[in-house]
Amino acid sequence: MAEQAACSGQVLAAQNAGATPRRGLFIVLEGGEGAGKSTQLQTVKSCMQELGFTVECTREPGGTKLAEQIRSILLTKDPDEALCSTSELLLMYAARAQLVRSKIRPLMEQGVVVISDRFDLSTIAYQGYGRGFDLQEIKALRELAIGDFKPDLTLLFDVDVDTGMQRVLQRSSKDRIEEESRQFFTRVRQGYLDYAQQHPDEVCMLDGSGSVEQVAEKVRQVLQEHFGHLQVQA
Ligand code: T5A
Question: Where does ATP bind (predicted)?
Fold first, then answer.
């Protein structure tokens, strides 16, 4: 029920906007650790291809040569020097500014559908709610880094913190941020839930606790509802 309500505004907006997109689309997958978004990236990609779109996938932080170097600083724990939270926040936006300008926007101008594993909502959830940065300060940095650029649709995969952490624990190694506490990830999840509730026209929340195939089926339904009516330009 909440899922349908969260999605309906975006469907109407797309229909009212006319049948033929003049540019590509930008679709983002979001969620806390182990929510299953990277697993569903392939579902989103193949579904949009089946609808006739040319698709490119990327990720945050990263996605370009320079932004991947920033990712490495962000996610690799340095035994000699801790990365401070302010540097972490600024590096997230440095990577994002680079990715939007050198990859996402140019691809969209060619009519490509760009799908990203994480984007700006991650910063609100992790650095805002998780680390405690003021959301207005984050907003000011966002405007500097990417202006008013935002996704056409964000799919938010939601699982409870324990389920997500259990899934991640099964992996052999954790990155620097994955080593944070359960309380940190509880705040991150709250950040996602608050944003989704406040922006139902931007975010479509999906229950990520079912099997991979059950979640994939919901993803296909949502994409069909949002983009199935669009005509792909030759
Ligand atoms: N970050 C990022 C910030 O702090 N601020 C920012 O602004 C940005 C952009 C990125 C890190 O950077 C932080 C957030 C992150 O900590 P990452 O390597 O990209 O790091 O890692 P994550 O995005 O967190 O990826 P995860 O792999 O942890 O989470 P996913 O992508 O949600 O989960 P996924 O799909 O890899 O699945 C995890 C495990 O669960 C299984 C999978 O097989 C896998 O083993 N799984 C399921 N199991 C059962 N049922 C399902 N439905 C399942 N779906 C997946």
Answer: 31-38
